[in-house]
Amino acid sequence: MRVIARGVRAFGLFWWDFLVGDTPELLIAVVLIVALALLLRHHHDADIIVLPVVTVLFLVVSTFRGRRRDGSRGKP
Amino acid sequence: MSTSSTVVLVLAVFGASMVEMVEALTIVVAAGVTRSWRSSLEGAAAAVAVLAVIVLAVGVPLIHYVPIDALRVVVGALLLVLGLSWLRKSILRASGHKALHDEDAIFAATSAELAPAASSSPSPKRRDAISFSVAFKGVFLEGMEVVLIVVSLGASQHRLGIAAVAAVAAALVVAAVGALVAKQLSQVPENTIKLVVGIMLTSFGLFWVGEGAGAHWPGSDAAIIVLIGVFSLVTIGSIAWLRTLHPTVRGQRTDVGLSERVEE
To answer: CA of A27: which chain B residue's CA is closest?
Structure first.
């Protein structure tokens, strides 16, 4: 049982680290992108513009946020 | 599925696998040099075998039993999470706001952590539980992201076999390079590869999320190439912009212990 519990915990930790980690804003971004993709599926000119734009915006914001955070810590 | 998207798939899987395997090989070599080569290699081989079973156990049912559109939305979202994360980290490193990933430092840290117990270790050709477990853990954890990419890209395009072959090919190339240069894994341009693969994964992820949701990308699969171009320009622009904003850690390199290393 302990082995199974440890395995489940390790599995959960892997996915938490993978999906959230220290960049929860990226998970929020992806959820939003998926929602927009589903909402805009009948607006064929809008989705192919909106989806890349939203993705780029979140990437730039997250990167800038990471720059401030890593810079304030002064270490990698 | 067009030839261009298959080529991009192969390049993305090959690059991602190469990045992760370089990181894993650093740990394997450190465990081998410090304690036991035999057990270290056995640990690595056992991890690769487990990862292969996971690819078969998860990938094949996904292809056969999950509706393709739903599959593409889910794997596209996973690829987006991974791709954006890699891209963000690579931009910060390239612009000098985050320390570069350095296999030499990781090798030294891993060796130092294993060294205190080396005096009690068996000879390099005999079995050693610590070497086995360190190598297994390193390869397994690094390989899980490769498995995710192989299953995601392979299943969404019904190219699981090609994706798996690309990953194995990258692992073999890295192993060959590792055998030739031993500790000099820092010569592999890992940070650059990670940036390029990040662009590819992000482009694939966005394409599949849209495609699975019902979007009609202009030019169908050729849109992947356009998305790669867009994210490449954004990446170049972001790096140039961030370089003007008081870089803090340019020139420094990552120096982490084994426990942090395998979690990255």
So the answer is: B81
A47 CB within 8 Å of a chain B CB: yes
Element at B220 (helix H, strand E): none
User: Touching check for A54 and chain B: CB below 8 Å?
Assistant: no
Average pLDDT (A3-16) is: 80
CA distance A11 to chain B (A): 11
Q: What is the pLDDT of residues B68-127, one digit of tens each?
A: 888 889 888 988 998 999 899 999 988 888 877 666 677 777 777 776 555 555 555 567
Place of tokens 């994706």: B163
Question: Residues B205-232: pLDDT tens digits?
Answer: 999 899 889 888 888 888 889 999 999 9
Whether residue B218 and residue A51 make contact (CB cut-off 8 A), yes or no, is no
What is each CA distance from B12 to B17, B94, B107, in whole angstroms? 8, 20, 26
Which of B80, B213, B238 is facing A60, going by the closest CB pair? B238
Look at residue A35 and tell me whether its pLDDT is greater than 60.
Answer: yes
Looking at residue B248, what is its pLDDT? 58
Q: In chain A, what residues touch B217 (CB-CB under 8 Å)?
A: 48
Say which residues have a Cβ less than 8 Å from residue A73's Cβ, sequence separation at least 6: none
Query: What are the φ/ψ torsions at residue B253 (nearest 5 degrees)?
Result: -130, 155
**How many Å apart are CA B93 and CA B191, to the nearest integer?**
8
A71 in B contact zone (CB under 8 Å): yes
Using CB atoms within 10 Å of the CB of residue B64, give its burial: 0 to 12 exposed, 13 to 18 middle, 19+ buried. exposed
Partners of residue A58 in chain B, C-beta under 8 Å: 84
User: CA-to-CA distance for B170 and B142, rounded, in angstroms?
Assistant: 13
Q: Do A55 and B99 touch (CB under 8 A)?
A: no
Domain boundaries, chain A: 21-76
Residues of A in contact with B105 (CB under 8 A): none
Is the Cβ–Cβ distance between B73 and B66 less than 8 Å?
Answer: no
* Predicted TM-score of the model (pTM): 0.75
Q: What is the pLDDT of residues B41-66, one digit of tens each?
A: 899 899 989 988 888 888 778 777 88
Residue B118 · residue B35 · CB < 8 Å: yes
